[in-house]
Amino acid sequence: MSRSDTFAESKNKYARYLAKNGLRSTAQRDLIINEFFKSEGHVTAEELHLKLRGKNSSIGLATVYRTLKTLESAGLAHERQFNDGFMRYEFCAPGYRHHDHIVCLECGLVEEFENNEIENLQIKVANKHNFTITDHRLELYGVCERCKSKTA
Ligand SMILES: [Zn+2]
Ligand SMILES: [Zn+2]
To answer: pLDDT, tens digit, for every residue of 33-55?
Structure first.
């Protein structure tokens, strides 16, 4: 899927969510979601707010927060917390692939990984407890290669 298709499909999904929940789209919300859909990786509301300010918008941080929450409810954003006190948001575009994260506690580097063995083990654990998994979060914390070489 091309980037502009992803964009259009995400916008449709968002519009459907707004309609279903009796919410209106506003010019401010549209600016925020456009900026968010362009973001890569894991962004905080503050980072998004700064970017929008750079584009001479007067959108308040609270509006950015609320819109990100809405995107999360609409299934277009995942909330991520990497142990540094910030809530981050990851764009969950159509065709999004599940992945987990490994985080450096020194420099904050976040890498993404997928591991089928871990995924299958989680299902096994859940089955043992008669659970059906609907969601999971896995973060590994440590020190990355660069930071390790700095302290060596
Ligand atoms: Zn590091
Ligand atoms: Zn990620």
So the answer is: 999 999 888 999 999 999 999 88
Mean pLDDT of 8-19: 93
From ligand 1's centre to the CA of 132, what distance in Å? 35
Nearest-ligand number for the alpha carbon of 148 = 1
83 three-class SS: coil
Task: Single out the residue of 38, 15, 29 nearest to residue 57, CA to CA.
Answer: 29
Ligand 1 center to residue 102 CA distance, Å? 11
Q: Distance from CA of residue 134 to its chain's centroid?
A: 17
| Number of domains the chain is built from | 2
Do residues 104 and 85 both lie within one domain?
no
Measured in Å, residue 48 CA sits from the centre of ligand 2 at 16
What pLDDT, in 10s, does the model give residues 50-93?
A: 999 988 778 999 999 999 999 999 999 999 999 888 999 999 88
60 and 110 belong to one structural domain: no
Structural domain that includes position 142: 100-151
Residue 60 half-sphere exposure, CB side, CA atoms within 13 Å?
3
CA distance 101 to 91: 15
Q: Please indicate, yes or no, whether residues 35 and 17 belong to a single structural domain of this protein.
A: yes
